[in-house]
Amino acid sequence: MHLEMRDGYDEEPHFLQWQQTGDATGYDWSRWIGLVGAARERGVTFRRLRIVSEPVSDYIRWEHAISYGNVDAGEDLRWLPRSRAYDLTLPGADLWLFDRRRARFGIQRGDGSRGTYEFSSDPRVVRQVIASFEMAWERAIPHEEYKLD
Fold it and tell me: Taking every annotated instance into account, which residue ranges of this chain make up the domain DUF6879 (predicted)?
């Protein structure tokens, strides 16, 4: 499970290129598609949930444009407008949850750049992460149905 809650991240060269050209095809998904494909062959599922403000930021618009790679890799991707998430208890940082046992939280700096990672295997934390994610997931819109204005 992967939870993303920010409306912007470090400026990537591909994002900057997209801003200039509108071309979303330059992002190389081959490594990710291979990684997810190999994991899926072992029975691993990948669910990604993006909680976004609306109207969406340029960064989220770019992420939406390149999300064909997430889908091609075999991820189940959903979008949750922040207006539908206001009453949920959510973690204070983006996260990955591995095997429903270990969470990796991505701590961002105030300027939006990548900070550090914090890990937790505390069963209480993991249970809360799962419960929060599942409630948000139920409200979220599948990628193929989520349209940007």
Answer: 1-147
Residue whose pair of structure tokens reads 């949750």 in the numeric block:
80
The single-letter code of the amino acid at 21 is T
Helix (H, G, I), strand (E, B) or coil at 92: coil
Q: Which two tokens stand for residue 114?
A: 């990548």
Comparing 140 with 113, which gets the higher pLDDT?
Answer: 140
Spans of all domains in the chain: 2-145
Task: Tell me what pLDDT residue 52 has.
Answer: 98
Show the tokens assigned to 104: 């990796």
DSSP secondary structure string for all residues of 70-89 = HHHHT-EEEEEEGGGTTTS-
The helix or strand, by DSSP H or E, that contains position 37, with its residue range, turns out to be: helix 30-41
Would you say 101 and 126 are in contact if contact means Cβ atoms under 8 Å apart?
Answer: yes
SS3 category, 40: helix
- pTM, to two decimals: 0.93
2-145 classified as CATH 1.20.120: no
> How far from 99 is each of 4, 77, 120, 134, CA to CA, in Å?
18, 18, 13, 15
Q: Give the tokens for residue 49.
A: 């949930």
Indicate the DSSP class of residue 99: T
Residue 121 vs residues 2, 95, 98, 107, 111: alpha-carbon distances, Å: 16, 13, 10, 17, 28
